[in-house]
Design goal:
The complex is a heterodimer of chains A (about 400) and B (about 210).
Chain A (H helix, E strand, L loop, with lengths): L4 H36 L5 H10 L6 E4 L19 E10 L10 E11 L7 E9 L11 H23 L6 E6 L12 H19 L3 E6 L6 H9 L18 H8 L9 E4 L1 H4 L7 E7 L8 E7 H4 L2 H16 L8 H10 L3 H17 L9 H9 L3 H5 L1
Parallel strand pairs in A: 2-5, 5-6
Antiparallel strand pairs in A: 1-7, 2-3, 3-4, 6-9, 7-8, 8-9
Helix pairs in contact in A: 3-4
Chain B lengths: L6 E6 L3 E6 L12 E7 L4 E12 L3 H7 L6 H10 L4 E12 L2 E3 L12 E4 L2 H9 L6 H5 L6 H18 L5 H13 L3 H11 L12
Antiparallel strand pairs in B: 1-2, 1-7, 2-5, 3-4, 3-7, 4-5, 5-6
Helix pairs in contact in B: 3-5, 5-7, 6-7
The chains are: A alpha+beta (about 400), B alpha+beta (about 210).
Chain lengths: ~400, ~210
């Protein structure tokens, strides 16, 4: 049966009206935040007040400015674009599926390396790891969560290794798609701690080598600054921490008003329980950057470790190169190197089928019996419906 | 005899095939080149064909980059060397070679997917084009959806040089006579072909390497 369009049409109409109403409420809320931000910009003692209030809140995730200036913006238009080594990492995975002939996992990590201004073709390194089974920390941890953590670790290990192996005289920028902050449900197991420690060690190693790591978050849905403003104006209670907002208001909407094209915001410290676990030198900060145009702002969030946040020259270099990377794809600004890393890392459904076939062939060579998909999967494949894409 | 393969078959029928090769391939055969596709060793069967079209495929990503005013050399090199965007060649079959020798008939069966393709050298071009009384010309003259005069001219330009260098200086003049004989009833077509061939040197017997 197709979708019930009669029901759907009525719902679309209702949701449309509700969204229109919501838009005006969001706009009013953002304006109120903006006014409050302007009132508090540069206020003496702002930082101390915030630090005191934040210290009283447990498990809070929010921004903390490095000084009292909140509204300042920074351009690198006058800075010459000097050659750098840009590395970008991405990873993808096959999650085990009991409905397939063989249930296996796979991690594929790729690092794309580009020497800007060299005229030399970039290079790509990929690493693939076949997982007979995915080890979960406990019964509460989903297989998807477990494999995502292993993928992140594999991706960052490859990035750190390739960055360290460069031995270049040029500055090195190491990009990942998404936050640098490890986003996992915290667990008290030796294996989880070891994996998290592995990620921290890679950052520490990059810090020793002076490499500039950055996590690039496109279309960010974070409200770190808004939460900070909530704390400042006393609107955030201990009970509301970690709960979603009634309205979808994000920092990005605030910075669309604030940041001219190519400008970045001030750098904020990222206050989060997972960041507090990190060694001080690599604790995370972030800034917002407008990679769009005056008519179509493109606000992105960039996470950096403390040693980059503390260096104005590293910040300028990172900002200039992120903008240069985005200009390679002018109609949809996104760092070219990250897009290419994604292209190299992604495991397509055709590749997954080929890998499955190779495994089946090997299984049969070793005297295994015939394998088949589950009856449910077979029925879906035969029906050749959209379920193939949704559930396979 | 087999140099480096420059591409592999994507699809084929009894008259022609499509092949993909990497953009960075240094030894890409130009339009009109004679190429050879080995099908099997025993009994020997290899198909001959002419490169009758060359397409450079694109995707939406390249379109975005192309719209940029300044494309850096690294990005261009990345597109040419690393990205899997192939050149697709159309190859018109003109004959085959077996243990019995060269035939100008269509091959007994088409090559298989991913069969490798090799560019023919001068000696092979001269041998193929000079045997069998220009029988292979009919495949060019009867081809569909192809600019026949341009393909003919591109092939003849290469075959003229190969035949002259291999001691067959009369090949060009004999080809013209054969062409006029075959197309004498279709004067317009013949004139278009002769027009396409008029810039070629059918007289010189000097080596043109």
């Amino acid at each position: 049966m197709p979708v019930n369009y009669e029901q759907l049409t009525r719902q679309i109409s209702t949701i449309g009206a509700s969204l229109a109403q919501q838009r005006s409420r969001v706009s009013a809320e953002i304006s109120a935040y903006f006014d409050f931000l302007r009132e508090n910009d540069g206020q003496p003692g702002l930082l101390q007040t915030l630090q005191r209030k934040i210290s009283q809140l447990k498990n809070i995730r929010c921004a903390l400015p490095r000084d009292e200036k909140l509204l300042e913006t920074f351009s690198v238009a006058d800075e010459p674009l000097t050659p750098v080594e840009i590395l970008a990492a991405d990873g993808s995975q096959i999650t085990p599926n009991r409905h397939h002939e063989l249930s296996y996992g796979l991690l594929n990590s790729a690092v794309f390396r580009m020497s800007t201004g060299s005229g030399i073709a970039p290079t790509i390194v990929t690493e693939t790891l076949l997982l007979e089974k995915v080890t979960r920390e406990d019964l509460d941890q989903s297989v998807e969560d477990a494999i995502a953590m292993q993928r992140d670790l594999a991706e960052r290990t490859l990035l750190a290794r390739e960055a360290a192996a460069l031995n270049s005289q040029l500055p090195v920028i190491a990009l990942t798609d998404g936050p640098l902050e490890p986003f996992y449900q915290r667990r008290n197991s030796p294996s989880f701690t070891r994996q998290l420690q592995g990620i921290h060690d890679h950052f520490s190693h990059m810090a020793e080598l002076g490499i500039i790591p950055a996590g690039y978050i496109d279309r960010p849905h974070s409200d770190l600054l808004l939460r900070m403003l909530d704390i400042l104006r006393g609107d955030l209670s201990a009970e509301s921490i970690g709960k979603p907002r009634d309205l979808p208001v994000f920092d990005a909407a605030l910075f669309e008003k604030l940041l001219p094209p190519d400008h970045r915001s001030v750098v904020f410290r990222l206050i989060s329980p997972s960041v507090l676990d990190m060694p001080e030198a690599i604790r995370l900060s972030f800034f917002y950057l407008n990679v769009g145009t005056a008519s179509q702002p493109g606000i992105v969030r960039v996470e950096i470790p403390e040693y980059v946040a503390a260096s104005r020259s590293s910040l300028n270099l990172l900002q200039a190169n992120l903008l240069a990377q985005c200009r390679i794809l002018p109609s949809d600004p996104y760092p070219y190197a990250l897009h290419r890393a994604h292209e190299a890392a992604v495991v397509t459904s055709e590749e997954r089928d080929r890998i499955t076939q190779l495994l089946i062939n090997d299984h049969l060579t070793h005297g295994g019996s015939n394998l088949s998909k589950s009856n449910k999967q077979t029925a879906k494949d035969r029906a050749n419906t959209r379920y193939n894409h949704l559930n396979s | 005899m087999n140099s480096q393969a420059f591409g592999r078959i994507l699809s084929a029928d009894i008259h022609e095939c499509f092949a993909a090769c990497r953009i960075s391939e240094p030894d890409l055969p130009p339009f009109g080149s004679l190429v050879r596709i080995p099908i099997r060793e025993t009994p020997r069967l290899e198909v001959y064909g002419l490169v009758s079209d060359i397409r450079i495929e694109e995707d939406g990503f390249l379109r975005q980059i192309a719209s940029n005013e300044n494309v850096s050399e690294e990005v261009m090199q990345d597109a040419r060397v690393n990205r899997n965007v192939p050149i697709v060649m159309r190859i018109l079959f003109t004959g085959s070679i077996s243990d019995d020798g060269i035939s100008h008939m269509v091959p007994p069966h088409p090559p298989l997917t991913l069969n490798a393709i090799y560019r023919c050298g001068e000696e092979e071009i001269a041998t193929f084009s000079s045997c069998g009384g220009y029988g292979y010309l009919r495949h060019i003259l009867d081809a569909r959806d192809i600019s026949i005069p341009e393909l003919l001219a591109a092939h003849v330009a290469q075959a003229l040089i190969a035949n002259k260098n291999c001691g067959n200086p009369e090949w060009g003049k004999n080809l013209l006579a054969e062409l006029i004989q075959q197309k004498r009833a279709q004067k317009d077509e013949l004139l278009r072909m002769l027009n396409a061939l008029k810039s070629l040197d059918f007289e010189s017997t000097a080596e043109a390497k």
